[in-house]
Specification:
Elements lengths: L16 E4 L8 E8 L4 E4 L4 E6 L9 E6 L2 E2 L3 E5 L4 E2 L2 E6 L2 E6 L7
Antiparallel strand pairs: 1-2, 1-7, 2-3, 3-6, 4-5, 7-8, 9-10
Length: 110
């Protein structure tokens, strides 16, 4: 039985190259800028832009409308393997004493 505050493990981490597999941005490649394991979401560069209205501040004295990336569900992205130019799942393998993420299709380290 699941506990209330149990965090499900995500196989996609910050810095991974991913492809969006569903939605408006389907087929777009990008790098994961930030991962949120509690909510199962990731922010991918150049994907899911929103307009944010900001007040004037020291950082942005003019204020105005800023376009920025918003989080998307981790189930809508898949890891991109540059070696085979295709998507692949990440699985954990034990190599020596360490647990390492590897591509399921090729067995190479992520």
């Amino acid at each position: 039985m699941k506990k209330k505050n149990e965090i499900k493990k995500m196989r996609i981490k910050k810095g991974d190259t991913v492809v969006v597999i569903s939605g408006e941005y389907k087929g777009v490649h990008g790098r994961v800028l930030k991962a949120f394991p509690k909510t199962q979401k990731v922010i991918v560069e150049k994907v899911n832009f929103i307009k944010k209205h900001t007040k004037p501040s020291n950082k942005n004295p003019q204020g105005g409308v800023i376009e920025q990336e918003a989080p998307i569900q981790v189930s809508n992205v898949m890891l991109w393997n540059d070696k085979i130019k295709d998507v692949s799942k990440a699985v954990y393998k034990k190599i020596g004493d360490k647990r390492v993420r590897v591509y399921q299709k090729t067995g190479d380290e992520v």
